[in-house]
Amino acid sequence: MDKLLLDLPEFQPGWVWLVGGGPGDAGLLTLYALHALRSADVLVYDALVGEDILKMARPDCLLEYAGKRGGKPSPKQTDISQRLVQLAREGKRVLRLKGGDPFVFGRGGEEALTLVEAKVPFRIVPGISSGIGGLAYAGIPVTHRECNSAVTFLTGHNANGIVPDNINWAGIAQGSPVIVIYMAIKHLGEIAARLMENGRLPDEPVGIVSKASTPQQEVLETTLGSCVQDVETSGIQPPALVVVGEVVRLRSGLDWLGAINGRILDSDPLGHRKAPEKTASA
């Protein structure tokens, strides 16, 4: 491992690396991300970056929290972006570490454009988005040949904290077999209503994955018509992903974490009817 890391690009003073930390499990970090953690002078990290990942930073690395959580006091995005510029201009190796992927609902583009404007050199290091990796840890694939050939990724709220009003709900409801929604718990009732108003059925499977890929992961299997009540009853909490579509049924066969803990998996989760065996004619 150490020999392999020697061949990675140098993290130079005055640079900012915008790095995706993956959905939560430290084992899902990329080699570039680990290299950055071992090299950075300053680590500016998000709320969804776990302690086990932070512990991988260089012992003398300065840790700065810049997490944004819905409904809670959070630093302004402009302040975070300008802080990156300031630290880089001080000659620091600045690691901006984000949960998931920095370019998937992670404001990485906004921060990178601020660096461009300030003429600060930077590198983008993609990470495993929680909408893919987090669902995989729940045993829910975002695509499956027998269920869907398209998937749509949405955010549950816009910059003002409300359900985005520029989404073509009719087009998505009618055209996307699988819908993955980030940050949707707060507005789940409105989102479910819009989907059903535009043709999705109340009994369509819905999966809700909280704290995906961490030891605290919880998964709720429900339906579009019942999801709001079931979330309230279960007490499942954000951060959580919501996935709508037939792929949720596959969890009964693909819940590999459950299998490790003794769950018996269903070899035919979609309920295929087996053709009768042919018998030789007399």
From TrEMBL:
EC number(s) in its UniProt entry?
2.1.1.107
Sorted UniProt keywords: Methyltransferase, Porphyrin biosynthesis, S-adenosyl-L-methionine, Transferase
Pathway(s) where this gene product acts: Porphyrin-containing compound metabolism; siroheme biosynthesis; precorrin-2 from uroporphyrinogen III: step 1/1
Q: What is this protein called?
A: uroporphyrinogen-III C-methyltransferase
Q: Which GO BP terms apply?
A: methylation
Q: Check the record and name the InterPro entries matching this protein.
A: 4pyrrol_Mease, 4pyrrol_Methylase_sf, 4pyrrole_Mease_sub1, 4pyrrole_Mease_sub2, CobA/CysG_C, Siro_Cobalamin_biosynth, Uropor_MeTrfase_CS
Show the Pfam families listed in the entry.
TP_methylase (PF00590)
What PROSITE patterns would the database entry show?
SUMT_2 (PS00840)
Q: Which residues form the Tetrapyrrole methylase domain?
A: 16-225
Q: Which gene encodes it?
A: cobA
* EC class of the enzyme, as a word: transferase
Family membership noted in the UniProt record: Belongs to the precorrin methyltransferase family.
Entries under Gene3D superfamilies matching the protein: Cobalt-precorrin-4 Transmethylase, Domain 1, Methyltransferase, Cobalt-precorrin-4 Transmethylase, Domain 2
Under the GO molecular function aspect, what terms does this record hold? uroporphyrin-III C-methyltransferase activity
